[in-house]
């Protein structure tokens, strides 16, 4: 199998170390949801812990259980609950739970043993988290459950919109007001957390006592105006495959569905066995960059489900030559950011969507 996502675990460890140093070495959580942003949850989690992360963060309890099954004993927080059906398993495996509502709190408080909870307030993003109106009642109920030994309020948290510094600072202020309510209740959570990668690097006011690093662990930048290199980060994933076949074709040869590309002159077409089923965005048709033998080419025509074509002109490209779609641009290959730009999306989506036919190889 030549479809390969090569994951540099040393880069993940170093990225976590770099992010920790840049954000003041306070307690940090490495976010490994969505299979470690496509890099593999378990290996990424281990590498992040190696780099000094104190906590692991995931969206779902199932994702947390996968880490526990692998023998990872570090503290884990899971925050996106569709139902309360998996709360008993989380409690048994000592997985801290994000709590956004009284309904969730009551379901968790009824279980033994008492588990760590992180009360979430919505400071403006409009996703989960108690509204400022519901917050005092949630905090009061949690305080009562904690006094009775039914839960441990380990954290209070929220999430930013990244809608600009002014909006973020407004959320910081709402968060501070929510913390006043907590302080008045007598609850003393050890972890107060608001910042993900972006704010942990650029908004010191949002750091509180823990920061949550997601995209930065994998060496990608959350900013449009700063590259991985600018932040001292190394992209951990390299997506590559090998040329499946080549052939000489005459001028005017149509290429791929819809003939959105035609050869200008006699040329060599190289067939690349990766398509949108593997996570290569179809919306990057005609634009996505690849590197073959040190030369960068653009996708010719439409990206199909399993394959796309490169017009390599008269270059000596042969079956079996390695084709790199993205990796660490310091090594001369395109970046995930270039694919994001070509596809009209963000680097998060490029790495997270890599499909199941692509083998992960760890180095
Ligand atoms: C995904 C996520 C993060 C990580 O965000 P990055 O921008 O990738 O650092 C942090 N907190 C929450 C609640 C998240 O959902």
Describe this structure in words.
Strands 11-14-17-16-15-18-10-1-19 form a 9-stranded mixed β-sheet. Strands 8-7-6-5-4-3-2-9 form an 8-stranded parallel β-sheet. It has a two-stranded antiparallel sheet with strand order 12-13. The chain is an alpha/beta fold. The mean pLDDT is 97. The chain is built from 11 helices and 19 strands. Helix 1 crosses helix 3 and helix 7 packs across helix 8. It has 2 domains: 211 residues, TIM Barrel; 126 residues, Lyase, Ornithine Decarboxylase, Chain A, domain 1 (Beta Barrel). Helix 5 links the parallel strand 4 and strand 5. The longest helix is centred in the middle third of the chain and has 21 residues.
Find the CATH superfamily of the largest domain: Alanine racemase
Main sheet summary: 9 strands, mixed
Shape: elongated
Distance between the termini: 17 Å
Percent range for β-strand residues? 15-25%
Question: What structural class do the secondary elements suggest?
Answer: alpha/beta
